[in-house]
């Protein structure tokens, strides 16, 4: 029986029997959050956590955060924006700037953001946290799982499975979301100059 139907039939049930579990979802960007939210909402009360100090330049960060806030408002979900600390992120990945995308720099990048998500989950009483990062075909879920588990009670959910990435594309179009054309940091594949000169729109990756 679903929790909702329980509440309707037995409104006197104590809170612990009617409340759904909560989960903190680390959001890397709005398009990547669409399908994961849809899936998690079937089982959890979902709260969003935007923590992406890897993103550069700051105007790009602002655009991604605005899109995430718009999605949260549209779906009626709470969203917390972490402090933007690109200097701290640069210190964390120091020495790995020239690593190829999908390499060791990206692992340190995941570690930086997921550690902050885990700390927020701990401080605010979430029993679980997870991340939208696994929806990307360019990010290895096994690596993200390992890093997430090392930080705290991480739900290993591979959102790219069962057409998750394709579902993201459908929902992002439906919601008219801003879709960036590079991963995020200044070392991402794609030249810095072309990023700085492009308008805030383009195909998602
Ligand atoms: S390419 Fe993407 S995942 Fe890798 S370090 Fe840069 S922002 Fe992080």
Describe the structure.
The protein is of the alpha/beta class and 205 residues long. 47% of the residues lie in helices and 9% in strands. The protein contains 9 helices and 4 strands, in the order H-H-E-H-E-H-E-H-H-E-H-H-H. Helix 6 crosses helix 7. It binds iron/sulfur cluster (SF4).
State the CATH architecture.
3-Layer(aba) Sandwich
Assess the beta-strand content as a share of residues. 5-15%
> What's the CATH topology name?
Rossmann fold
CATH homologous superfamily grouping = HUPs
Give the CATH class.
Alpha Beta
Rg over CA atoms: 18 Å
Tertiary shape = globular
List ligands, each type once. Answer: iron/sulfur cluster
- Give the distance, in angstroms, between the N- and C-terminal Cα atoms: 39 Å
Number of strands: 4
Major sheet size, sense and barrel closure: 4 strands, parallel
Features:
single chain; 205 residues; alpha/beta; Rossmann fold; 4-stranded parallel beta sheet; 9 helices; disordered N terminus; disordered C terminus; binds iron/sulfur cluster
């Amino acid at each position: 029986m679903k929790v909702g139907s329980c509440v309707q039939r037995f409104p006197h049930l104590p809170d612990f029997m009617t409340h759904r579990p909560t989960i903190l979802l680390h959001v890397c960007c709005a398009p990547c959050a669409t399908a994961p939210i849809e899936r998690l909402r079937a089982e959890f009360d979902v709260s969003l956590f935007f923590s992406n100090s890897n993103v550069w330049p700051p105007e790009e960060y602002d655009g991604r955060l605005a899109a995430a806030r718009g999605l949260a408002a549209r779906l009626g979900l709470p969203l917390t924006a972490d402090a933007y600390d690109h200097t701290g992120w640069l210190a964390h990945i120091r020495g790995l700037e020239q690593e190829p995308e999908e390499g060791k720099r990206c692992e340190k990048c995941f570690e930086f953001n997921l550690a902050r998500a885990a700390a927020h989950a701990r401080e605010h009483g979430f029993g679980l946290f997870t991340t939208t990062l696994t929806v990307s075909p360019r990010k290895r879920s096994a690596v993200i799982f390992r890093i997430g588990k090392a930080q705290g009670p991480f739900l290993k959910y591979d959102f790219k499975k069962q057409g998750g990435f394709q579902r993201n594309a459908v929902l992002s179009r439906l919601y008219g979301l801003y879709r960036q054309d590079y991963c995020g940091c200044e070392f991402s594949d794609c030249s810095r100059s072309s990023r700085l000169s492009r308008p805030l729109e383009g195909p998602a990756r």
